[in-house]
Amino acid sequence: MKHIHLYLFALISVILTSCSHACQKVELQEDTVSLLRNPCMGWGVYDDANDEVQNANIYWAAQDEAARQYASFFYVRWRWSDMEPEEGKYAWLYDENYKKLIQGALDRGLKLCFRIYNNGQDNLRTGTPDYVRRAGAKGYTVKGLKGDLWTPYPDDPIFQEKLEKFVEAFAKEYDNPDIVDFVDGYSLGWWGECHHVILQDQNKFEQVFDWFTTLYSTHFKNVLLTLPFGSQIGFDTEKRITVTGIPGHGKSDFVDEIVLRLCTRQDWRAGYFSPENTPIEYHHAKLAEKLLGHRFRKDFSTEEEFARVVDYLSQRVWHILPDGDFTLGNVLSKARELVHRHGIRVFVIDPYNYINHQIPAGMTETGYIGSFMNSLARFARLNSCLVILVAHPRKMNKQYGTQKTEVPTMYDINGSANFFNMTDYGIVVDRQDEMGIVYIHVEKTRFRNFGTKGNAAFCYDVTNGRYSPCTPPPEPGMQVQPWKGAKDLFSSEGWI
Q: Helix, strand, or coil here: 421?
């Protein structure tokens, strides 16, 4: 140990001695004007070609000032079908407009970035070149700007073979850090954002993920590869929420609140199996009141509001009511169609007892409910979807010495403790009429990073069906106060 100490002391002495002779004083001048172009950071300009790709001359005439004074990179987010419309006919060799776009970026000192995607959702034309389909690749349809578009299954061997050839050629042209900042190394799913990835065999998801990322990392050895943060590989929305409460306490209404807040804040789409909410027009009217902030009637809503909310709901919320077959398998099959055709991210079953339960001979109710919850978990995982289940409790007793009904817990859901044991989140809706509030009891959260157990108080606005956080009164009959920081107890501001 003594020798080590002597060595360190000698090394430090040498460093300090050399620095005293060689170091020079440098004065740094502050620069608040010049553009600092940091790799993979800062402002960027891009062509996000879900419609037609940009005309190079028009694009750079419009973006010239921004590109020269502020931007660090030019992000090309193009369909594979535009990068290679015919097999072996690559845009960087044959597309003069593309070459002008790229050269325009380089002439302005911008680095290039790429995302090349293959799914045609919300696009003008298919994301994958048609020669892949003609070669025999299997696929399905997604919703395009002007109708249904074919898109391949990423686990199809013909699709994989053709994409491998393209990526190899793509890397030969652009695996150059002198001109390229980064390339998206995983661009499956809608818009290449890694969600709504539909396979022929969803059990092969990890295998396909490994194949795709390995494909890019094998050929791009010099530039940075990035990974979009999608729900199927990052933030996990594929969970089950079970909601219970005494009949008439507002379980369905609170679920509608959750769904619409996800739709308006996160741009989600929703599907319902809700036989109790029929006719569907009545349910749409309830949703419309939450969205508009007031009654959905002629004397309250203008024609413009009516048209706006009808248009919004027609693009965000769908109902299924299978004719004569309410078995779980059929309901989930119809829900899967909503995932594929409309991209729903949340599916509501309201309530559990409307499902036609077919319990196999010899299976207990507890065992069946466990199997039922497993089926919901599998549907959620395979379809990147949040599932909300509304389930009624058993008949609750009156509290001793009062006429008040006991507040149910998740263990009181009629049928089995597996409703509590096998859900990811457990919520109890408890309306306290004498206090003028609704308590939301979160009795279970399986994952700490997505929340904790606890209680929250809300006030229910009868004019629009919304729930507003509030401070409960200390005693019945006293006025309810708005939540901390809120000016008013209720808001009638429109959500759309």
A: helix
E strand spans, 331-395: 346-349, 386-390
How many of the other CB atoms lie within 10 Å of CB of 380?
20
Q: Are 111 and 159 in contact (CB under 8 A)?
A: no
Phi, psi for 389 (deg, rounded to 5): -115, 125
Decide if 345 contacts 258 (C-beta within 8 A). Answer: no
* pTM: predicted TM-score of the whole model, two decimal places: 0.57
Q: DSSP secondary-structure letter at 212?
A: H
Q: How far is CA 122 from CA 38, 237, 317, in A?
A: 33, 22, 17
The two structure tokens encoding residue 69: 């004074």
Mean pLDDT of 304-329: 90
The values of phi and psi at residue 48, to 5°, are -100, 90
Note whether 85 and 128 are within 8 A (CB).
no
Two structure tokens written together for 45: 């300009």
> Where do we find the tokens 């009181």?
412
Can you say whether residue 456 is alpha, beta or left, with left for phi > 0 and alpha for psi between -120 and 50 degrees? Answer: beta
Structure tokens at 393: 């409790």
Token representation of residue 18 = 């050399």
User: Predicted confidence band at 99 (pLDDT cuts at 50, 70, 90)?
Assistant: very high
Burial 48-65 (b: 16+ CB within 10 A, else e): ebbeebbebeebbeebee
Q: Strands 425-432, 437-445: parallel, antiparallel or unpaired by DSSP?
A: antiparallel
Output the six-digit token pair for 80: 């594979």
**pLDDT at 459 exceeding the cut of 90:** no
Q: Hey, how many other C-beta atoms are within 10 angstroms of the C-beta on 101?
A: 23
